[in-house]
Amino acid sequence: MAGTGVFSPGRAKIDARTLRRDRWWLEPALIFGLLFTFVVYSSVRAFWDTNYYNEDTSLLSPFYSPCLADACVEGSTHLGTPVGDWWALSPALLILILPLGFRMTCYYYRKAYYRSFWFSPPACAVAEPHKKYSGETRFPLIFQNAHRWFFWLTLPYPILLAYDAYDSVHHDGDWGVSLGSAILLFNALLLLAYSLSCHSCRHIMGGRLNHFSKHPIRYWGWVQVSKLNGKHMQLAMVSLVVVGLTDLYVLLTASGAFTDPRIG
Ligand code: FES
Fold first, then answer.
1. Where are the transmembrane segments (predicted)?
2. Is 108 in the pocket of ligand 1 (CB under 6 A)?
């Protein structure tokens, strides 16, 4: 049977899996470690269902925002509790599905986990172990095309997270800034930058136009989004790490491990 990929008919007959001499495995290995750690940590926290809200300085973990169920801790339900009491599991499980879908279908993360987890291929000029390749044209990977919809559905999240930061500044009618407020705001801004740097966002701004000169506002937006788009990989990774650390900060302060320093 004819091979596929680098073993296809017509490709140079080279038995070695790769002729690369550099440490090509280092990047996929590091990304594997980072993504695996995040998946384990976020799963534990999503099911934990406690210590996600610091009542003293109104810090709400981004994993639990917005908190929409009756079971949410008092003070954490900025949008009310439209879900009511029928949801008995952790409220994080209700809302994490959208950010999870957004990141899972992100063009950058696809490249990252296809390489690090599926070795498809593990790096440029390194043969993959799979015999067949059907791309993203069939089930289940055809659902990667839902990315543009996840973009729209998750666009409100940075605004909601920024509101959480505002709420912690305007705590119980008193104004004051805590370290946690700054961390919440930083996390919201990073998530906004990551969302706006999305390839779908770039297409929405400048796609399907024949003449930029006739659409100066969209052209200006496309130029700005394109600048962010050039940093999409970095924003994807940094925002992932920061959202995890933000949750960890809320966990530590909500559990009483230390006090969130506050001025005012
Ligand atoms: Fe990465 Fe859209 S391509 S978020």
1. 24-44, 86-109, 149-166, 178-196, 235-258
2. yes
